[in-house]
Amino acid sequence: MQRHMETERWSRQRSLRRRFGRTASTLSLLTAVACTSAQTPASVAGMGPAAPGEVSVATWNMCGVQQWSCEKTGGPKEKFRQLRDLIDASDVHVLLLQEVCSEDLLSSAQSLGPQWQSVFEPYAEVDAAGRRSAVDCTGQGRGQAGYGLLAGSRLTDVETIPTEQPTVGLHRGILCARVPAVGLRVCNAHLSLRASDAEHPKWDFRDDQLSSLVAAASTDAGTVFGGDFNSPPPVGDRNTSAWIWPSEAYTTYRECDQKGSSRAGGATLKDGTKIDYLFTQLPRTACKVVDTKASDHRPLVMRVKRPESPAGVSTPR
Questions:
Q1: pLDDT (0 to 100) of residue 261
Q2: Do the beta carbons of residue 196 and residue 166 sit within 8 Å?
Q3: Residues 136-156, mean pLDDT to the nearest whole number
Q4: CATH number of this structure's domain 23-235+242-305, picked from the four choices 3.60.10.10, 3.40.50.300, 3.40.50.1360, 3.40.50.720
């Protein structure tokens, strides 16, 4: 971990409490909900149905923790409508979700149908004495704040990946699982902000966290990994955080929006920056940033060839 400073373009006020263990839920299948163009807002227009042998994966910071400057981004019902429309419009089978409330995630899986499953990992705040606290989401019965996975089939081999975290402050993390029905392994990461360690505000943990994420992905060539990295892509002369990126991110792997050697990509945050990512070694067939009205982040959707398809795992393009 390098002790490094940079200028962050955005921040949120966050107050967090005690960490609990992972809650896993075996839930859901997407029931055929016919959505006409009148029912589905134009802003949620997606890729359409996946071709045989392809699968769509999305990452979305839902801004579901109201006290983290998310009170004006819509309530649980609106966020679920946007989630459902995202799934329908792009035929999404797996979602990597950040800043989601545990009970909202559980309820979403139940509402989508019996073949859908979710797994959840709470955020944690660690104080100067080493005590860990979870964050309670604002609103009755919404549970804890955290990150998780939502899939239209069984999730197996769920694991949290050890990473460097602030000494005093908010702990995010990395959560991986297999989705056997589509032959994928997925890893969802939510990286630390700069200056997130109250005891060592000049320390930056994102380089170690990205290295841990890439190492976790390297165990299976059929992995899709991504999430909210709280970092712009490594481009531009004024980018003071380009140093955090491992070289494998854009060489061994390719990012959803990566074209040729360019490491730029479409904005995913509503301030015009890109901080949300999806990487894989699998052949990519489509990528789309989807506008929504229920978060300060836009979902990013990537479509890939499934490992068991005839194209198989090949050199990234």
A1: 86
A2: yes
A3: 95
A4: 3.60.10.10
